[in-house]
Structures are given as structure tokens and as C-alpha cells.
Amino acid sequence: MKTKSRAKQLYWKPSYVDLDAMYPPIASAGIHFEDWDAWDDPFNMSYRQYIDVQAKKEVGFHPVRDAFERYKGDQHVPRRWFDGMKLAFPILQTAEVAAGRAHARTARYAPAPALRAAAFYQSIDEMRHFQNHLFEMRTYNQFDSGFDNWAFWRDNHFTMRSGKYIYEDIMNCDNVFEVIIALNLCVEVVFTNLIFVGIPSVGALNGDTAMAQEMLTTQSDETRHMAIGQSTLRTLLRDDRNIEQLQYWLDKWFWLQHRAIAGPVGTIPDYFAKRKYIPYIQMYQRYVIDNFIAGMIDDLAEFGLKPPRFLDDAIAELPDYSHTLYRTLFQYKNVLFNKMFVPTDADLEFFAEGYPTFEANHGKFWAEVRGGDPKDLPQLPMLCQMCGLPCVFPVPERPSVCSSILDNQAFWFCSRACKWIFDHEPHRYAHRVTLERQLNGMDVPEIREFMGLTPGLGGTLEAADDV
Q: CA triplet 428, 88, 340: central angle to 5 degrees?
């Protein structure tokens, strides 16, 4: 009887080419490790095991989505919720595609064989995620216009540009370890519980069972992704020469993920959810501050790693972050592809209870809107050269705008953190052409034409829309 031989390792040292040619040093420049072959993957599994696990997850998601469609689940979802999802899912899809491509590159160029295998599995995970996000948008499109042209708006609309800047930047990183700190640590460990656990809870409360299940099946992969980030960080911190570089990447990507995720995500539980769960600031405290800062970062302090440089700035923004972003979007409602709405009495009561400074910082704005002032603005605001968000934080009346001069040209930023990142890598970020520059001088009809907005898109929901 013949026995099948099994390969225990899928890597080798080539005889036909130098290792530096196969795995270029630029992919790990500045990172020190003595024996890449000894790198450990805490979730070491075979491809067969991986496929079996993933197949079971798909079986759990699609029947829920099918039932939502068949039994008209949209009838139980407030109209405003769909308009929040129009902003959320194109950004999610952008992030997943970029993560998939970034990890495909890591799977090819990482110097550690076990890391290449782990990155390969994660790249496939991200493909599953963005395909499921597309399924979800297809489901939404049966009930609500505004999802059919999502790919064009993802690439061209100013509300999507921040996510596009940040995640395509990760996708194009030369250094695979910067990718891991940006994605596997600063996205997966810090923010995914907020997105894929906190937000699905709000979705289920608002009747969107399909979205809740889709988010949870996405989160089911994140444990492996988190393990890659945590094990990589712990391993590399054993060599003191890596600390400075790792600290910079942590400082940089924590802030950029705070910008890309914290504000946009915060508008969903605070505004687009008619049936409230808890204020977003409490969700951020639970999933980011308590879980990440008080947990992992404190544990790693013995290696010399410090909390993210701009953590205090991020925390200081939280009482206003979602409110500032929502009211800014409201002022540009006539150049959006989703619809906005005036907060109801119940919304304002919720904000007053959950945000002690809400009335002082935002109450007057909404009082004037409810008094008949639409607050529409004729042109786009100044957009940050680093993150792409409007320069309106912490509140539009008192924005913390910063600037830098490079080659006799001024660059403007929404925060000292974005300026600090730009100043560290100016030639990496100076050539971005923000939509503010492309649309400079255009009025609302011209902006709508540029962004492909057909009649009926944008504007406000009315009381008859079950706001």
C-alpha cells in the first residue's frame, strides 16, 4: 500500500537566485530579526483546515440575508438607517480591498515564511469580506436607491476620499511591517470590535438583521488578524533597535485610523440609528480605550512601547467628533448621494444626556436649523491634505487648522497630528490632489455634475420618510 507524503513546509532557499532578490530588503527595511525561519504563527493551519472553517461561516451568513430579502426585512428598518449605510459600506469595501491587496503583497515579500502564510490566509479573508459587503449593498439596493453607483462615488465623491487616501496608502506601503502595524494592529486590534461588534448591535436594534449577521461573520476572522499584529509587535519589540520605528508607525496609524474610522462610524449609532443603543463615546471608551490602551499597550510598556502619541487628542475630540462630522455633512446635503435629516426631539434628548457639552457646542446650530435656516454652504470646505476630512475639528466654530510649507507651497491640516505625520514624510504625501482643489470655485450644480449625482440624490428626508 502506497503512503502519501505530506509537505510540512512550503518554503525553501532557492539555488537559482539570491534571497535578497526574492525577498527585497526594502520590504523589511529598518526592522531587525535574527532568524526569519523561526518566526511563529499562533494560528498555524493547513489550507484544508482554513477552507473548512470559512465554508461554515458562509453557511451561517447567506441564509440570514436571504430571509431578510424574502420576508421584506426592510419594512422594519427606519429610512434613515439606509442612508447611513450608503456612507458606511463603500468605505468598508474600499478598506477590505486595500487590506486584501496589501496582504497579498505581504504574502509575497515578507521575509518570514510563517508570516507569508498567515498573510496569504488574511488576503483571502479580505476577499470574502468585500464580496459579502457587495452582497449586502445588493440587498439594500432592492429597497432603496443610492447604492447602485457606489463604486463611482467611492472613487470620486469627497465623502469617500478620506478612506480612499488612507487605505490605498496602506496598500502601497513598501514595508510589510508597516502594513501589519497599520492593519493588524491599528485596525484589527484597536477598531474592529467597534465596527463589527458595536455597530451590528445597533443594526440589529434597528431591524437590519442582514447587516448585523454580515458584520459578525466578518468579525469572526479578526481573531487571526489580531494575532498576527500582536505576535509581530511582541516579537519585534524584543530587539531594542525596532522600538523607535514601531512607535512611529503606531503613533501614525492610530491617528489616521481614528480619523478614517472614529468619526464616520460615530455618526451611525448617534444619528443614523433611530433606535439608540448607547452614545458612541461610550462605545469608543469600551472597545478602544479600555480594551486596547488599558490592555495591550499597558502590557507592552515593559518593552519601551508608549501609548499612541496623539491618544489624548483623539479622546479630547470624542464629545464632539460625530456631531461635528454630521452637521458638516448636513451643510453639504445638496452634494451628497445619501440623504440627511434634522435630528428629532428624541435624538436631541439622547445627545443632551450622553454628551454634556452637546448643547453648548451644537445646540445653537440645530435650533437655527429647526427655525428654518438650512445652513447650506455653496462650496466645499477646506480639506486636510493628510487625511482628506474637512478642517472643522473639534467644532466648526473653533477648528484646529494647521499648516506646513514645502517647496514654497502651503499645505493645510485638520489637526496637529495630521501635520506631524506630513512633516515626517512630506514627499510621500505632498502630491495628493484633494477634491477641494479639483472643485475649487464650482457651485452646487457644477459639483453635482462632476460627481455624477442624478436628480433625487442628496437633500433631506422628510417626516413622512419615518425619520
A: 115
On whether the CB atoms of residues 15 and 218 are closer than 8 A, the answer is: no
How many whole angstroms separate alpha carbon 190 and alpha carbon 148?
32
Q: What is the C-alpha separation between 174 and 48, in angstroms, rounded?
A: 31
pLDDT tier at 464, thresholds 50, 70, 90: low
Angle of helix 47-70 versus helix 113-141 axis, rounded to 10: 10
Which domains does the chain possess? 19-465 (1.10.620.20)
Cα gap 332→349, rounded to integer Å: 24
Contact (Cβ atoms closer than 8 angstroms) between residue 281 and residue 93: no
| Separation CA 418–CA 386 (nearest Å) | 6
Question: Would you give the DSSP letter of residue 41?
Answer: -
List pLDDT tens digits, range 13-69.
778 888 888 888 999 999 999 888 888 777 777 888 888 888 888 888 888 888 888
Ramachandran region, residue 330 (left: φ > 0; alpha: ψ -120 to 50; beta: rest): alpha
Reference 63, options 71, 54, 74; nearest CA is: 71
Instruction: Note the helical H segments in 142-197.
Output: 150-156, 158-171, 176-179, 192-193
Q: Indicate the SS3 state at residue 402.
A: strand
Rounded average pLDDT over 423-430: 94
Tell me if 148 sits within 8 A of 185, measured CB to CB.
Answer: no
Tens digits of residue pLDDT in 137-186 = 988 888 887 788 888 888 888 888 888 889 999 999 999 999 999 999 99
Neighbours of 25 (CB within 10 A): 11
**Angle (deg, nearest 10), helices 113-141 and 79-109:** 160
